Amino acid sequence: MATTSELLTANLHDVFGNSDPESRRAAIERTFAPDVAFARLRTILAEAQQS
Question: Exposed site from 6, 24, 32, 40, fewest CB < 10 Å?
């Protein structure tokens, strides 16, 4: 199992720092869990204020 540091580094360099679509997709599949969800703090806060 990868460490937190390894996952953060892979996410930064292999996913967000990668402009090649095929290589980026492979990095996403290696790095993220199949059920990963992206959450934006601003969106979460806005939804909480509306409730």
Answer: 40
Question: Model pTM?
Answer: 0.63
Burial of 24 (0-12, 13-18, 19+ CB in 10 A): middle
Six-digit token pair at 17?
A: 């720092």
Summarised one tens digit per residue, pLDDT across range 1-51 is 889 999 999 999 999 999 999 999 999 999 888 998 877 888 878 888 887
Residue whose token pair is 């290696």:
30
Alpha helices by DSSP H, 1-51 = 4-10, 21-31, 41-50
Residue 28 CB contacts under 8 Å (≥ 6 apart), including other chains: 15
